[in-house]
Predict the structure.
Amino acid sequence: MLETITCRHIAYAALIAASALVCHKRLAALMMYAWTHDSSSQILLIPFVTLYLIWLARKRIFAVTSLSIVPGITAILSGGIVFWIASAESLHLQGNEALCLSALSFVLIWMGGFLLCYGSAALRAGAFPLLFLLLMIPFPDPVLNWIIHQLQQGSTDITYLIFRTLGVPAHCEGFLISVPGVTIEVAKECSSIRSSMALLITCLLAAHLYLRTWWKAFVFVLLSLPLSIIKNGIRIATLTLLSVYVNPDFLRGDLHRDGGFVFFFLALLMLWPVFIYLEKSDRPSTISPSAIRTPSEVLERG
C-alpha cells in the first residue's frame, strides 16, 4: 500500500513538472504579473498553501486511492484546450485575459492530474485545497477595475462617516475628501486591494480549518468583505487626522506606505470575537450519553 501511494505521488509530481516545463513561459509571465501587481500578489503563495493543506489532511485525502483514467485525462485535455485558446494570437485577447486563461489551464491540468493519479474519492476529500488553486487566477481587468472601484467608493464613504462622527468638518465630492488643512483623494492605490485579498484568504483558511458548519464558515468569510472596506476607511481617516493635527508627513511617511499590515491586524482583531463565537458554537457536545438521565430516572432519584 505504501509503495503504491508513493508511486502515485511520484507520478503526480512528474506530471506537475512536465506541465510546468511545457508551459514555462506562461508560468513565468504569471509569476511576474503576481510580483508586479498588488491585486495578484497572493498567486505566489497559493501553490505552497495548497501543498500544505493537502499534507495536513493527507491521511484523510489519500485513505482511498485509485486510477481514474478517463475523467482525469479529460480534465487534463480540457486544460490543454484552454491553454491553446490563451496562446492563440488570432483571438486578439484584450488586457490580461490571456494570462487569466493560462492560469485557469494550469489549475485544470493539475486537478485533472490529481484525479488521474488518485481517483474521485481522493478528489472529493481534497476538494478545498484543490479549489483553493483557483485563487491563482488573476481577476480579468474589467472585473478587477470594478472591484477596485467598489473598494474606493466604500472606503471614501467610511472615511467621510468617521470624520462626521468625530465632528471633523469634511466635504466629500467623488473620491475627494476635504478637511481643514488638506484634501485627500482615495485613489486606486488607496483601495487596499492587496490587504483585502489577504484578509479574504485568511478568513477562508480559518473557516476551513476550524469551522464545521458550512453556513457559519460562509458567514465568517462573507464578513471579511465589508470589514476590508471598514479597516481601509479607518486607515485613511487615521492618516489624514495625524497629518492635520500631528505632522503633515504622515501622508507621505512609512505608515502610509508600509503600514497596511497594522490595519490588517486591526481587522483580524475585529473578526476575532466573531470567530471565537462561531468556533465554540461549532464544537461537539462533551456530555456523554451515560450522563444524560431520562425524566423517569430523575423522578426515581428524587
Summary: Confidence is low (pLDDT under 50) at residues 286-302. The CA atoms of residues 251 and 273 lie 31 Å apart.
